[in-house]
Amino acid sequence: MAAKDVLGRHGEDLAARYLEQRGLVVLSRNWRCRHGELDLVATDADRLVVCEVKTRSSVRFGEPAEAVDRRKAARIRRITQAWLAAHQVRWCEIRFDVLAVVAEPGRPVTVQHYEAAF
Asked: Where is the signal peptide (predicted)?
C-alpha cells in the first residue's frame, strides 16, 4: 500500500472514531459504486451524515478541507443518491460534512469537523 493510502486509511479510522465518540453510528465505510466512493456514511438518529475525510501530513500546501471544491461536492451528492438507492432509503434528511485530519510527524493529530460543509 502506498504511503498516501496508509495515511488516508489512518485518517478515515480516526474520523470514524471521532464520529462514534460524538454519538454517531457509522453505517458504511469506503462505500463504492461506479460513480466513486463515499468515505463515511453515518447517522445521528435524526439524519444521514455523509462525511468526506481529507487527511494530510502537513498544511504546507493548504488545509485539507480546501480540497473539497464544488465539483467534488457535486460528485459526493451523486454518489449519495446511489447509496440511498442501494440501501433502499426512499427519503431522509441528509447532511454533508467534511472531516479534515492533519497528522504531522512528531505532533498530535488534529481533526476538524465541518458540519453541513456543502
From this structure: none
| Rounded distance between C-alpha atoms, residue 64 and residue 112, angstroms | 9
H or E element at residue 86: helix 70-86
Alpha-carbon gap, residue 67 to 101, rounded angstroms: 12
Q: What domains, with CATH codes, occur in the chain?
A: 3-114 (3.40.1350.10)
For residue range 12-62, what is the model confidence (pLDDT) as tens digits? 999 999 999 999 999 999 999 999 999 999 999 999 999 999 999 999 999
| CA of residue 102 relative to chain centroid, distance | 14
Nearest CA-CA partner of 72 in 90, 57, 92, 50: 50
